[in-house]
Amino acid sequence: xxxxxxxxxxxxxxxxxxxxxxxxxxxxxxxxxxxxxxxxxxxxxxxxxxxxxxxxxxxxxxxxxxxxxxxxxxxxxxxxxxxxxxxxxxxxxxxxxxxxxxxxxxxx
Length: 108
Prior knowledge:
Blueprint (H helix, E strand, L loop, with lengths): L1 H25 L5 H10 L13 H18 L4 H18 L14
């Protein structure tokens, strides 16, 4: 049990670092208006705004880390599904307009 929690924490930390870097790149002035601005056009604070993004953004910010853990780690598919579920709950909460947990979304 402790090892499982440890592995999930490792995935969360690695994904957060990766996502932060990709998100900062997406805010660079040379590509923001072409890719990430689509996500910021959605003005409603509903969880579906999370999925409203350019294909390249969705691919590199969301799918690449999932595929990485599935292909290159020894983690079980059950563990990866738990991590994806936790990540989805977190990101949906961030875009919902409510702050159930501490909300970092307002600081980007």
